[in-house]
Amino acid sequence: MEDLKNVFISPLPDSPYVKPFRFNYTQNGKEKTWDLLEVHDSVAIVVFNVSRKVMIFVKQFRPAIYYNCIHPDDRESKVIDTEKYPASLGIALEMCAGIVDKNKPVEQIAQEEVLEECGYNVSLDQLHKITSYRSGVGVQGSLQTFFYCEVTDDMKTEQGGGVDDEIIDVVEKTIPEIEEMVNSPGPIPSPPSCLFALMWFLHYKADKFRK
Question: How much is the pTM?
Fold first, then answer.
């Protein structure tokens, strides 16, 4: 995961994942514009292993985090110096998640992501929809649907780690480690949706597993 080479910045061609555009509107009689990104909606799943009382996370390299750790002057370099900027700067700890890019119910997409990323084979009735919310409201406003599921060791039927060219590590954390994480002064290498999910878990679910 941290074997990073040949990093450089280039213009964005047509992309199936991100479509930038300008939104034009008149508000209170004043003409305005706002630059936006069209992206896929997504799902995120809190996976808690009740056999060992640990939360299941995924760890992966996120280019957006890495890019924002590079000084603006150094972004102009032909090739980014990966000794000065090691891959570890861009590694995030997140909930199991995935984009909604298939013509399937979000519950089924969430089920597939839990198997592909974490290795647990969960049934649809074990996935509990908690809520949905808008992410990246400044530039995208896409909808993310948040699920919760409890798993056991014997439900782990695959290695996990993603599919195709994904490089994902499965990470487990205890409830005290989760509490330490959300109380960290930061910067925390996790998106706000992950921290929201963890705080939801600590508020609504954690007490029954503390015994």
Answer: 0.93
